[in-house]
Amino acid sequence: MAERESTVPLLSPQAEELLKNLHGWTLSEGAKKISKEFTFKNFVEAMEFANRITLIAEAEGHHPDLHIGWGKVVVETSTHSVDGLSEKDFALAAKIDQLKRK
């Protein structure tokens, strides 16, 4: 049986508990999204990182918002179908953190 996606967003206490498993991610006011800024030596490294995120996002079918600037990528993720956060956001964040460690 396929796993069913929740139709309701995580409550703030649930999101705060899941956030403990991530390093450097912040929970927005109202617990509607999580975000993190990653820093790099230059624009090219930032773009390469953003492009690697796209591969994970496509594989997961879950797409974060990326804000790219010189030497930085800000990642924001939420689940649009629930108008807030789901466990998918935290799983995606963990995979993105793994990219930075490589």
UniProtKB/TrEMBL annotation:
One of its GO terms (biological process) is tetrahydrobiopterin biosynthetic process. Transmembrane segments: none annotated. InterPro entries: PCD_sf (IPR036428), Pterin_deHydtase (IPR001533). It catalyses: (4aS,6R)-4a-hydroxy-L-erythro-5,6,7,8-tetrahydrobiopterin = (6R)-L-erythro-6,7-dihydrobiopterin + H2O. Its EC number is 4.2.1.96. The keyword Thylakoid does not apply. One of its GO terms (molecular function) is 4-alpha-hydroxytetrahydrobiopterin dehydratase activity. NCBIfam families: PRK00823.1-2. This is Putative pterin-4-alpha-carbinolamine dehydratase. It comes from Candidatus Kaiserbacteria bacterium GW2011_GWA2_52_12. The lineage of its organism: Bacteria, Candidatus Kaiseribacteriota.
